Amino acid sequence: MKSLSNDLFEKQISKLVISILPLPNTQQYKTMEYLINHIFVIFRKLTHLIFTESSYSNIVELRCDPPMKFCSSTLNVPNKPTDFYDKLILPFLYRMSNLERLNLSISVEKIFIDRLNLTNDIINHFLRLNQFTFDIHSIMTINNEIILPTKEDFPNRQILSYIDHFPYLNQSQYHIYTYPSQMSFHPNISNQYPGGYYPTLRLISLYEEKPFEHEFFLRISQLFPCVEKLILCNRQPQKYKQSSKLIVQYFHLIELDIVDIYFDYIEEFLCDTRTFFRNNIRLRINDSALIHETDYFRREDTRMNCSKVNDFISYGPWRSWKSFQEYFPSLKHNFSIPSFYLV
Question: How big is the CA angle at 211 (ends 206 and 212), to the nearest 5 degrees?
Fold first, then answer.
């Protein structure tokens, strides 16, 4: 980095975008620490600093030493799961005392970050801040002493928030964000989701310890019309399987993960009277569940959607069956592991 410290870097560069590539955790951590602690020294005229991710599936952790003063007008911090809110995130932000615009997207553990935290920890520290957007996802272990924020604390209609309790995981999650949102990945969407419209969001995960009914998936397809990858986790059976005749339509979906689920959701996605896929998809699914729900590849109302599966991993002997090959005519002959299994 010292060799780069010349007039060009010190006096001319005012905007810096750093894209993060996947690295082993230890190497990634040290790389980010090194970058953060040298950027402020080398780029002395920097006014815009943006951290971005090389792909929506890549999550990078930030680390910096104790605070130092740094002037900036724009900071975009992508989604970083961390339980070091006080020791990592805030000291990093305090380096930029002249911030005018801030987009903060983080996931934290062991603390609920609500409007009071944002006011005391951030807004009151940046007197020049005139634009503050955020997407903050907090997770805490459930206990008798936990004090949860409530929706009544947020009268501003441009701020959305909701709370979930997951007894099986022994966790509660709290999500607060400005709307319209700039988030690139939306984790753990539940029945409590407040709504909105997110035409640019590509990756979502759905988690609940209560049933997801068909109307929920109709709503999700409308809220996230351009979703490309969907991950579902729900082990509770549906109660109202025949309550709607409307078909859920996914116009951009190309990757579907339905491994950790109750059998009902296989029918929800593979039955053509319930779901429509415009594109071919990569499918992650449990072998025995697939055989059961397709009646050994003989069921007619799941044949259409299965014909659009062009990639999924399985080493079952039934892959050589004629009935299987006819049921999945789009499936690639190359049985390599799809990319989303490596994430």
Answer: 50
